[in-house]
């Protein structure tokens, strides 16, 4: 639970993904629930993840996933 307040970058990204998933459900007449579950699930993961995950992803993208 400490990561929610200390790691504000991933928490904010997670909240944005969750809101996007919920907005997608309410805006579309027939939403794709697989996409919604991926957005919300990934958002929940990012809410509890430390900010070092973002640095790890940056480093992996620079290295080309070798």
Report on this model:
- With 66 residues, the protein is mainly α.
- It has one domain.
- The protein has helices spanning 2-6, 8-27, 33-48, 52-63.
- The mean pLDDT is 88.
Secondary structure layout plus pairing:
Blueprint: H1 2-6, H2 8-27, H3 33-48, H4 52-63
Helix pairs in contact: 2-3
Keyword list:
single chain, mainly alpha, 80% helix
Summarize the structure.
With 66 residues, this protein is mainly alpha-helical.
Q: How many strand units?
A: 0
Residue-averaged pLDDT, rounded? 88
Number of helices: 4
> How many structural domains are formed by the residues?
1
Order of helices and strands: HHHH
How far is it from the N-terminal to the C-terminal residue, by CA? Answer: 33 Å
Low-pLDDT residue spans: none
Rounded Rg? 14 Å
